Amino acid sequence: MATFTSTLPDDLLQRLADYAKKLSLPKNKLMENALNLYLDHLKRAEYAKSYRQAAQDEDILMVAEEGMGDYLKQIEDEAR
What we know:
By secondary structure, the protein is an all-alpha fold. The chain is 81% helix and 0% strand.
């Protein structure tokens, strides 16, 4: 595991210390958990943005519609 050194505003560091004590967690573990949650949030936001962009792309919509047509035909064929 790597060591990381940074500076934080005093008020944020105090909030970190308060919650670490309240949750009985080391500050570094609380920061690790918080950073993981935040990075996951950013990744989800990127996915949402890409889907919004894809919804505006005519080529992607055409491919999706063609795929849905094939899928529906496959379901119909299997139902017979």
